Amino acid sequence: MSRLAVARTLARVAAGASLDAALAAEGVDQGAHAAHARALIYTTLRHGESARALRLLLLADPSRPLKAPLAALIDAAISELRHLATPAHAAVAAAVDAARALAGARSAGMVNAVLRRFLREREALEARLSREARLEHPRWLIEAIEQAWPAEAAAIFAANNQQAPMWLRVNAARDTRPAALARLAAAGIAADAPPAPPHALRLHQALPVEALPGFVEGLLSVQDVSAQWVVDAVAPARGLRVLDACAAPGGKTAALLEACAGLALIAMDVDAARCAKLRRGLQRLQLEAEIRCADAGDPASFAGDPGFDRILIDAPCTGTGVIRRHPDIKTLRRASDVPALVAQQQRLLDTLWPLLRPGGRLIYATCSILPAENELQMRAFQARHPQAQPIALSPAATAGGRVLELGWQLWPEASAGDGFYWCCWRKPD
């Protein structure tokens, strides 16, 4: 049954659904084979370009379209044979059984023939793959990354095609990193701590959060190391009034509250379901913030507001820095999405800048590696608001990535953090 759920989940993503929505709709995380099903889905999405290309090479008549779930089933089986440790005979048998249940005996025979041919001719077939298929990225994204970061492009592609490390953040308000490391070690869980940021831990092997000692009690959270620089970027202090403008699901909100007692923090998000998730997360961590379900890009959301000492805009973006965590981005994103997102980011910046008090700090962040959303967006902001003063981020020299004229760009690294962009601005007194 798990292969059917895998195929249907992948078909939903191909039709435009987010991976999270597709997983929930198909109930993939339920049942005895949930872990394998999830691993297979993520693997297939990471290696979807080559799986689709190989499927078309293997079909007797590639011009004859297959129904989406059956095509997805074949892609998943090819990915399983290439990238997972499942014995070949078991992977083929499971795919054939799923095809029979999905589309009947004839389709089962076709799937069996296709997969057995792949096993016989694998080397020759893989030699015929296009550059997009070998890099496992759509052409538009390959071109965008190579244009922006020619020296780093190969490493970015490679990192995007791997499973991301699992990073944790220790709740600084209630725990310490040495104590957390000791609890993990006592439970037989290997982890290490980078020199900075100060509350980050990296697990040597990803685990369900329920298996982490201290997670349920609110002593730990899952958060990528690149995002944990939010405390340095915002520089919170007791009594400051802070707006987290696109806050849900709340990782950065929580990090700020953990780092600084007495912070007056307003967490805002336009999506009610995401706000509810944010609230649950803060409750687990025993933290409090004012939560507003509203559009931070609409001036009406701030009628009568006295303004803020800090404004964090973790802006909606292409997510091109977190592809390894959200491999559906490769399928769902298009080059045509970029201008609309850039316009949305600009709307947030221009709405919120007037709400920043003199001497205050505005922090702009994305989990993108595309300059249009990052440094070029900041150059345009500076042109519209010439009084804004850029602030250099102190950790940039020691934490990887590249310090730019405006901001700090991190790229996804195989054993380190996600792709992320930070830029800070001060409003003159």
Keywords:
nine-stranded mixed sheet, alpha/beta, 3 domains, 17 helices, 429 residues, Alpha-Beta Plaits, globular, N-utilizing Substance Protein B Homolog, Chain A, 13 strands, Rossmann fold, 45% helix, four-stranded antiparallel sheet
Overall description:
The protein is α/β, with parallel strands linked by helices and 429 residues long. The protein has helices at 2-14, 19-26, 34-46, 48-58, 68-83, 88-103, 105-127, 131-135, 139-148, 153-160, 177-186, 230-234, 251-259, 272-285, 328-332, 337-352, 375-384; strands at 166-170, 191-192, 200-203, 220-222, 241-244, 264-269, 290-293, 308-314, 356-366, 389-391, 402-403, 408-410, 420-426. It contains 17 helices and 13 strands. Strands 5, 6, 7, 8, 9, 10, 11, 12 and 13 form a nine-stranded mixed beta sheet that branches. The protein has a four-stranded antiparallel beta sheet with strand order 2-3-1-4, covered by helices on one side.
